[in-house]
Structure formats: structure tokens, C-alpha cells
Amino acid sequence: MAKQRQASGRKKADDGRSRRSVSMADTIEELDGILANAGPAEADNEDYWRAVRAQFPYNGSIHYTNNGTIGILPHMVLQAQITVLKETEIQDGDTGGVDYPAPHEAHEKLAALINADPSEVAITRNSTESMNIIALGLDLNPEDEILTTTHEHYGGWSCWQHRHAQFGNPIRKLDLYDPPEDEDEIVRLFEEAIRPETRVLSFCHVTCTTAWRLPVKKICAMARERGLITVVDGAQSVGMIGVDVKDLGGDFYVSSTHKWLFTPKGTGLLYVDDAAQDKIGLGYYTGGGRPTARRFENNASQSHAPLVGFAVAVDFHNAIGTCLVEDRGAAMAKWLKTRLSDIPGVRVWTPMNRALSASMVSFSIAGMTSSDVGTPLRERYRVHSRGLYEGGYHGARISCAMHNSYEEMERVAGAVEEIADNRC
Ligand SMILES: Cc1ncc(COP(=O)(O)O)c(C=O)c1O
Asked: How confident is the model over 137-160, as pLDDT tens digits?
């Protein structure tokens, strides 16, 4: 900590010329100071969020509203990786006076963030890898069925197709098109779809299509009563909304932390509940002793840079706080949903209900394909969105991340208005 204090003092003296470098923190202590100077930590304090935005070196050449695909890194997380790489590869030993976390702290900090034990947490490359580890490793009989939904991302679905091809397990998709805007009715849809042969429920926390937030806790409780295994694809959740894996009560939970938690690209989460460790037989084996989630990491010789960056990313997130990040995203998404709903020809798929939505907004424009919407958004209006494809939806998805502003959302809404107006 003393080292960090020294670092902040020196950095301010050295970099005093440029406003941007003054406002980009190297340490959490500096960040705390910058945020404290920006006024109350509240979802509608724009000064506060401008200070948050200033932590991202992203040059803004295009409005980046696609955190749902991949995040952009805060300076602190980027710098941590650069420093560790230099230390390793050049042995220059110069950390700029910053005391970075040790690589093993990544697991501890991530586990604390989601209320898991560090032994239940593996740092994989992304959700797709974590889903593959589960789908290929689960001890199932060939006739055991996997029940999933019509809203899965390829990364949470192709692994089950592979399982089917390798071991014959049948897969069925629960029709979740236009699900009711009522948590209990959604649970009932899952419940009614279960058959005697169903053994696994695999579904998203926040869907990549319509950006629905599913009632994970209720679905898992219902599944547990029936002795089913639950696999939750939380690619879009950790860092966007509060995730307490014990409270949610699933067996397995995966996430692409590189999206909303701003961890280095190529890092993600596999959570294996302690009680579910013996439900997976196959996988890497990189250490002896009692099986934990860590056996699914290839933690032999590897770079420390992403792990150090990961630990810094969790600290960065915590300096702002999950509740505040979630509130900000929900408020901005609500604003955008309201604005888009008023545009003739636009259909917003994401519910207004906060319990059933989060920080992304999906919409269609009547008669237009995903590229009809996404191409002009990107090329004419410089807005980076994500097209809707899975489940046969057409349209675009906008992410409301902590670095996004209402000016950007106004630009999105104005662009959609013009695109909808000009359709033939
Ligand atoms: C719900 C869902 N699952 C899985 C994935 C795949 O993520 P990754 O490419 O990080 O593995 C995504 C990506 O957008 C997603 O939205």
C-alpha cells in the first residue's frame, strides 16, 4: 500500500500536463480519489460516470455499445498486463511503483465476488470453453436428455450438439419465444417441459438474443427438487449484475468475464459447486488431491499477465461496486427502451420489468434484417452494436456498460429513428 501511495504521488507530478493521463488511475487508491472528487456515487451523477469513462483508454472512434460481445479494458487492467509481461520477458523489474496483486489472487477475488469458495472457481478462457468442459465431462447415461432453450448462444449450445454426436444424449429446446413477463410462469414453462428422461437443464442467465434475465434462482430450485443438473450460462452476467452463485443454487455457472467485468480477453469463469464436483468425470488432470474446479484449468506453465490483470479488474469493479454498476446499466437501458419503443416500426424485445432485464436492449425494425440495421448503425452512425441471429430474431442489441453515456444512447436512438424512417 505504501508503494501504491508513492506511485500515485509520482504519477501526478510526472503526468500533470494532460487531463486524460491525470484522470487515468494506475492504482485503486488513485481511482478512489478520482471517484471521490467526482461527487456522489449515484447512478444519475454524470460527473461520476465521466470519471469512470476516463479510466478507459479506448479512443471512442466508434461508439462502443457492444460489451455483450467483448469488453474494452480499463487502463489499469491493460497496464497491469503490460507490466507483468515486461517483467517476465524483459526482466526490467520496473512496475512504476505499483504493487500489483499476485496471480493466485485472481481466483480469490473472483470467488469472493460471486460468493463461491476459491476451490469452486476455475479461470478458463471464456464461456464457450467452460460450457464445453461441462458438456463433455458430465457423467450421464446415453439416454439422459439435455433440455435447453431457443435463446442459447452458439457458445452455450454447440457443446451439447457435440455431446449428442459423441455420446448420443438427446437434446431438446424449450420454446421460449415471447416468454411471459412473469417469473413464475417462466419457471412453469421449464417445469412443464421436463420429461422422465430429462437429466440436465442448460439455460442463460441473461439471454444474448432478447436480453431477458431469466429467474435463475427459481428455475434451479425447481430443478433441484426433481434431481436435475443445472448449467447456467452467465456469459452476460458477472460484472453486469450481482451474481451470488450460492443464492442462485445451480450446479454449474459459466461466465465470459471479459465482457462486463473487464477482465483480460481470453479469460472467463467456470464455477463448479462443491456438491457437484463428482458429477464431472472427464477433464484435465493437472494436480493430485481432492477434485476441485481447478482441475479444469490447465494451470501448468503459463503467462501470469492475464491472471494479474484479472485480479486488478475485480478490484476495479469493486471500487465502483456491483450494485451501482447494475443500477446504472438498468437506468440507461430503461431510458433506451422507452426511447426506442416510441419509434414507429421498432419493436423492443427486452422487457421493461427490471427483474426480467439487465443492461442490454434488443430491438427489431419491421421488415429489416440484422444487417439492414447493424450496417448503417456502424457505417453511417459510428455505433458498434451486435446483430440478433440466434433463435431467428432480426435486429440489434445495444449494451449499456459503465463506460457508456446518455449522449451515446441518444445517438443510438436518433440513428434507429432515421434507419426506421428510411426503410422502404
Ligand atoms: C449467452 C452467451 N453464451 C455464450 C457466449 C459465448 O461467449 P464467449 O465467446 O466469450 O465464449 C456468449 C457471447 O456473447 C453469450 O452471449
From this structure: 999 999 999 999 999 999 999 999
**Could you give the CA distance from residue 368 to residue 365 in angstroms, rounded to a whole number?**
6
Please choose from 67, 124, 126 the residue to mutate so as to test ligand 1's pocket, defined by most ligand atoms within 8 A of CB. Answer: 126
User: Is the beta carbon of 385 within 6 A of some atom in ligand 1?
Assistant: no
DSSP state of 42: -
Longest CA–CA separation in the chain, Å: 69
Identify which of 57, 51, 83 has the alpha carbon closest to the alpha carbon of residue 320.
51
What domains appear along the chain, each with residue ranges and CATH number?
A: 1-36 (no CATH), 105-314 (3.40.640.10), 323-421 (3.90.1150.10)
Q: Is 263 helix (H, G, I), strand (E, B) or coil?
A: coil
- Ligand 1: does its nearest atom lie under 6 Å from the Cβ of 235? yes
The grid coordinates listed for 322 are 456491483
Q: What is the mean pLDDT of residues 47-75?
A: 96
Report the separation in Å between the CA atom of 150 and the middle of ligand 1, taken as the mean of its atom positions: 15
Buried b (16+ CB within 10 A) or exposed e, 218-249: bbbebbeeeebbbbbbbbbbbbbbebebeebb
Ligand 1 in contact with 158 (CB < 6 A)?
no
Substitution site in 256, 269, 398 for ligand 1 pocket (most atoms within 8 Å of beta carbon):
256
Q: How far apart are CA 396 and CA 350, in angstroms?
A: 11
Asked whether the whole model's pTM tops 0.90, one would answer yes
| Cβ–Cβ < 8 Å for 346, 365 | yes
For 91-130, the pLDDT digits (tens) are: 877 778 889 999 999 999 999 999 999 999 999 999 999 9
* Cβ proximity of 73 and 56 under 8 Å: yes
Can you say how many angstroms the Cα of residue 358 is from the centroid of all Cα atoms in its chain?
Answer: 11
- Which ligand 1 atom sits nearest the alpha carbon of residue 204? 1
pLDDT at position 2 over 50: no
- Length, in residues, of the chain: 424
What's the gap in Å between 42 CA and the centre of ligand 1? 30
Which residue's CA is minimally distant from atom 4 of ligand 1?
A: 155
Interhelix angle 127-137/154-167, rounded to 10 degrees, is 20
The CA distance from 220 to 80, in Å, is 37
Is the separation of the CB atoms in 189 and 181 below 8 Å?
no
